[in-house]
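A student in our group prepared the protein record below, which I am reviewing. I have pasted the whole thing underneath without changing anything:
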Amino acid sequence: MKRLFALTALLTSLAATADNSQLPGHYVLSGVPDVASEVVLNADGRFTWRIAANGMFEQSASGSWSADGAHVTLTNTHQGVPRFRLFTEQEYRYVHPAQDGAWTAVLSLPSLGPIPDAEVQFVAASGKTMSAVSPHNGYTVVKMPAGEQWRRVGLRMKGSTAPIQWLDVPSAQAAQRLAGFTVTNPDTVLPSPFDTLVLTRRGNELLMGPEQGGKGVYRKQ
């Protein structure tokens, strides 16, 4: 009898393994208006996930995936490095002027909100440097001696070991003592979309659970 149970368990395990081998692939979300999303399950146990709403706001995740019976679990370990850029002229529309005698670096995602906890290094043409961390409103302010000219800015997130990204401050912005900065990959500075995401298997589909609204279906392409 024990041998029978052991054989049954072995066959069940082999069947699950064979079934899991069919999981890797590219899945695209359907059933959620104005939302585009995809999941790529790689055969090596890694995944990438992306979502965009109204063709504008995008988040992503990556990490490892595992399958257990009827469920597929995505575990997010994505820790990307922000790619900073200067504001465009249009993005300055709602920015407040700099205070007298102060240099202001505005860290923000236009239309989404400020970027707090960014390490900002203000460098003058003379080489004088001052540092600050962006507060909750993104307006990062330092007091520089009169006569100093703003030359460039160094940026990275607080506590990061990534190299500092250096950007030159345009002369027009240096004259106003005001420069705005955002990132080209917002998901690296926004709260993580999830730590773990559990999807339910149904043939070649992965179904979203109640915590995600329960309406979307990822279909294998």
Summary: Residues 4-18 have pLDDT under 50 and may be disordered. The longest helix spans residues 2-20. DSSP finds two helices and 17 strands in the chain.
